[in-house]
Specification:
By secondary structure, the protein is mostly helical. The chain has 1 helix and no strands. It is rod-shaped, with a radius of gyration of 58 Å.
């Protein structure tokens, strides 16, 4: 059987005092540091999750802006190409009209010169006929 005496009570008192001192000096500071660490970890995780959401939102907005800019640049490029094609067609039409006018003027000049040269040839024909007849020995040709 267990005998209860004063030593047991003193040892029990000292043990309880030791537990109280250890609790105050060691366990509570360790538990407080662990709680603070857990809280800072939770805050960091929440902050990281919030930053990840913000990054996803920013990335989605950026992707949307890039897509809009690409669409806008495509539309602008198509418009520029259409305008360039219209300008090219217009310039080609102007150049064709100028060329047609130049050809018409050249044809008129050539026809006028042809008429002049034919008239000269017709005027020279009797002289040439006389010269040819004289060379052949036929004498003068009667007209």
């Amino acid at each position: 059987m267990v005998a209860l005496n004063l030593t047991l009570i003193v040892q029990l008192g000292l043990f309880l005092t030791f537990l109280w001192v250890m609790n105050r000096l060691v366990l509570q500071p360790i538990l407080r540091v662990m709680d603070e660490r857990d809280e800072s970890i939770r805050d960091a995780q929440n902050s990281a999750a919030s930053d990840a959401r913000d990054a996803q939102n920013i990335e989605a907005r950026y992707a949307g802006e890039v897509a809009a800019a690409r669409r806008e640049s495509t539309v602008h490029l198509q418009q520029v190409r259409r305008d360039a094609l219209r300008e090219r067609i217009s310039v080609l039409a102007e150049r064709q009209a100028e060329a047609d006018r130049a050809v018409l003027v050249a044809r008129k000049e050539a026809r006028a010169r042809l008429v002049e040269e034919r008239a000269k040839c017709e005027a020279l024909a009797p002289e040439l006929a006389d010269a040819m007849a004289a060379r052949i020995g036929l004498g003068g040709v009667q007209r």
